[in-house]
């Protein structure tokens, strides 16, 4: 091989390395519910959207749906928006008091920014939220006042190695005085990631929920991707371990 040819090949290695790093970062972005999307064309600077929905069932139940909007490309830094709405029901009381059912409906419209790095992606959101609740018991239903507040939402999706995925989610809201934290880790298996997850939730009513389980994340079926989780959870007022299952699905438009 000539020195000239060798020089050309050597000069191309950094560019190839940068492209490989970008592909690694995008591989982390793709599975995320709030970041999922296929690679964008180099000249595509139009608004892009990911629709998603989730559901969790146990002693309590909750479901939500929404959309993430990216104003540039999913594989690089830029402004983002997140719109969500959901609702659920859970038991309250016990310990000698009547068991009530609390029904909740909530929504939020958030703006933020995503940071794409070689090792993964970080997204932060902030914006207004609103919540409406009602209590139901033997012979009565009580509607509670509509509450408005402010929500902070952060997500990290990282690839510690080529075959592992680690995630962290933190959500803080003032409308219900609530906080939610979820951590997960997974190893690549059959085209998805399998591993443990743990989450904790609490709000101003002294309701608490701790959960530990296993998840399968980024399972693809056509244009849709899924996360399936199952495990055990401890929540008030039951104060006993119960099974839970959850499902999340997302698709890019």
Task: Give me a quick take on this structure.
By secondary structure, the chain is mainly beta. Helix content is 11%, strand content 64%.
Give the arrangement of secondary structure elements.
Blueprint: H1 3-29, E1 48-57, E2 61-70, E3 78-94, E4 97-117, E5 120-137, E6 140-143, E7 147-158, E8 164-173, E9 178-189, E10 192-202, E11 208-221, E12 224-235, E13 241-252
Antiparallel strand pairs: 1-2, 1-13, 2-3, 3-4, 4-5, 5-6, 5-7, 7-8, 8-9, 9-10, 10-11, 11-12, 12-13
Q: Which percent band covers the strand fraction?
A: over 45%
The count of DSSP E runs of length 2 or more, i.e. the number of strands, is 13
Distance between the termini: 48 Å
The number of distinct helices, counting runs of at least 4 residues, comes to 1
* Secondary-structure element pattern, one letter each: HEEEEEEEEEEEEE
Radius of gyration: 21 Å
What structural class results from the helix and strand content?
Answer: mainly beta
**Overall pLDDT score:** 84
State the shape.
globular
Give the uncertain stretches in residue-range form.
1-45
Helix coverage percent of residues? Answer: 10-25%
Q: Mind summarizing the main beta sheet? A: 12 strands, antiparallel, barrel
In spatial order, strands of the major sheet run 1-2-3-4-5-7-8-9-10-11-12-13
Could you explain how this protein is built, in words?
The chain has 253 residues and is mostly beta strands. 11% of the residues lie in helices and 64% in strands. It contains 1 helix and 13 strands, in the order H-E-E-E-E-E-E-E-E-E-E-E-E-E. It has one helix at residues 3-29; strands at residues 48-57, 61-70, 78-94, 97-117, 120-137, 140-143, 147-158, 164-173, 178-189, 192-202, 208-221, 224-235, 241-252. Strand 1 (48-57) and strand 2 form a beta hairpin. The radius of gyration is 21 Å and the shape is globular. The relative contact order is 0.15.
